[in-house]
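so im writing up the methods section and need the DNA-directed RNA polymerase subunit record in one place, dumping it here so i stop losing it
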Amino acid sequence: MSTAGPQLRFCPESNDLLYPKEDKDRKVLIYVCRNCGYSEDAPSDNWCVYRNEIKHSQRERTVILQDVRDDPTLPRTKDVTCPSCQNHEAVFFSASTEEGTTLFFNCTACGHRWRDYV
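--- predicted struct ---
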């Protein structure tokens, strides 16, 4: 017993792989070459669309990771004052929710965390 899955499709002009894409105007699935722009309609018996939407609770969205002040990839600012120790340097990052954007700060001296609603 064999299970036939989606087959790879190749561009007849450049032999590059064709990638699935939605033609929003016509509301159909097409295959497109990223190299030369060639496109063709996908056969309707070959359509397989899956959408996985993950819903996070408010608590999950606002979880602040431990030790973010040591993360070298996060930006730092010296334009804030820590409400706990009055230090003027903090690591910061933003998060967007239904309520708007929130800036999270973490003091580089004492580790105190606070928010600024933008």
